[in-house]
Automatic annotation (TrEMBL):
InterPro entries: DUF1761. The chain crosses the membrane at residues 6-26, 55-74, 80-100, 112-133. Keywords: Membrane, Transmembrane, Transmembrane helix. The keyword Lipid metabolism does not apply. This is DUF1761 domain-containing protein.
């Protein structure tokens, strides 16, 4: 890895893209209602949670994920296609981890696919941003 090839503004924008995608993905009109049912959470419970803590840690983990992906892509040959492919492959790893944990937590397959596919989509977009913004 050549750390001089890591584009830190792109890392931050790619991390922010996870928020944008999550905002759409977990919207009640998309998968949010199904996710809440399968997570056994009510709107009241979510509203009572510490959202600063939730979003703060989510931002931190998005930056870590984006920086990690950028480190793998720190190569002069990296382009949009290579970035998106690396992100997609990272998403497969993440999907596997989510599925494994969720099976032991006795979550439904619908729950596994909602969370796992979110990771695949968001990491693919992250990789595309990192690959394109060289």
């Amino acid at each position: 890895m050549n750390s001089s090839l890591v584009n830190w503004p792109a890392v931050l924008v790619a991390a922010l893209s996870a928020f944008a995608i999550g905002g759409v993905w977990y919207n009640p009109k998309v998968f949010g209602t199904a996710w809440m049912v399968d997570s056994k959470l009510s709107q009241e419970e979510i509203q009572k949670s510490n959202m600063a803590k939730t979003f703060g840690f989510t931002a931190l983990f998005a930056v870590i994920s984006s920086a990690n992906l950028a480190a793998f892509l720190a190569d002069p040959k990296t382009d949009l296609a290579r970035g998106a492919t690396a992100g997609f492959l990272a998403g497969i790893w993440t999907f596997g981890a989510i599925a494994t944990h969720s099976l032991f937590e006795m979550k439904s397959w619908r729950h596994i696919f909602i969370n796992g596919l979110y990771s695949m989509v968001s990491l693919t977009i992250m990789g595309a941003i990192l690959g394109a913004w060289r």
